[in-house]
Amino acid sequence: MPNILFIGDRATPAMEAAGYPALVSALMTSSYFDRDLHFSAHSEKGLRIADLAARFDEIITPAAPDILSICIGMEDILPTDGSRPTPLAQFRDGYLSLLCKLKERFPGVKPVLIEPFLLPNDAIGEYFNAIFTAATNYQQAVRVLARDCGTTFIPAQSALSRASKLRAPEYWLYDGLLPTSAGHGLLAGEWINAAKELIL
C-alpha cells in the first residue's frame, strides 16, 4: 500500500480540508482504485525547513512515506511571526540535510519538491517586488536541489504566474500567498501531471 505524505506550511491544508492534497487524493484514488493508495497530510502555520528537520521523527517517521511531497519555504522567506527570514544558504543547506536524512531513513522514498510561491496582492502591497526577488532565489534553490538529488519538482510559481495572466492573481491566491479553491485545483493538476508516474 503506497503511502503518500504531503507536508507544508499553511498553504498546504490538512487532508480533511478542500486543498490540493485532498484533491490529489480524490482524483488518484478514483482513477487508480486498484492500487490501494493511502494519502495523508501534515500542515502547520509557521513551519520552516529547520522545524521540519528538527521534528523529523515526529512528522515524517510515523508515516513511513513511499512518496513525500514537500511544500515549504514561504515562512522562511516571509515569516508570519515577525521574526527574521531564514538566510538563503541556511535554507538550502537545511533542505539538503533533510533530503539526505530522508533517503537514509527511507531508502526507497520518492520526494516531490514544490517550490514556494506568491503573487501580487494588496496584503503584500509595496513590498511585493522585494519579496518576489528574494523568493526567486529560494525557488531556484529548491529547483537545483530537485535536479541534483534526482527528485520530482513541481514548478508552482511558474504555473501560478501563467494562470495570473488569464485571471487576476487573487483568483488563484487570495492574499498573495494562500491558494483559493481555484489555486488548489491548479496545484493539484500540476502535482498529478508531474508526480503520478511515481505511483503507477
Please tell me about this protein's structure.
Helix 1 links the parallel strand 1 and strand 2. The relative contact order is 0.16. The chain has a single domain, classed as SGNH hydrolase (Rossmann fold). It starts with a strand and ends with a helix. With 200 residues, the protein is an alpha/beta fold. It is globular and about 50 Å long.
Describe the secondary structure blueprint for this structure:
Layout: E1 3-8, H1 20-31, E2 38-43, H2 49-54, H3 56-59, E3 67-71, H4 74-77, H5 88-105, E4 110-114, H6 128-149, E5 152-154, H7 156-163, H8 169-172, H9 181-199
Parallel strand pairs: 1-2, 1-3, 3-4, 4-5
Quick summary of this structure?
The protein has 200 residues and is of the alpha/beta class. The protein has helices spanning 20-31, 49-54, 56-59, 74-77, 88-105, 128-149, 156-163, 169-172, 181-199; strands at residues 3-8, 38-43, 67-71, 110-114, 152-154. It has a single domain (3-199), classed as 3-Layer(aba) Sandwich (Rossmann fold).
How far apart the termini lie comes to 12 Å
Task: Identify the CATH class.
Answer: Alpha Beta
Question: CATH homologous superfamily?
Answer: SGNH hydrolase
Major sheet summary line: 5 strands, parallel
Mean pLDDT over all positions: 94
Low-pLDDT runs of 5+ residues are: none
Shape summary: globular
Number of helices: 9
SSE string, helices as H and strands as E: EHEHHEHHEHEHHH
Strand content: 5-15%
The SS-based structural class is alpha/beta
Give the strand order of the largest sheet, numbering strands 1, 2, ... along the chain.
Answer: 2-1-3-4-5
Proper CATH architecture: 3-Layer(aba) Sandwich
When the domains are counted, the total is 1
What fraction, in percent, of the residue positions are helical?
40-55%
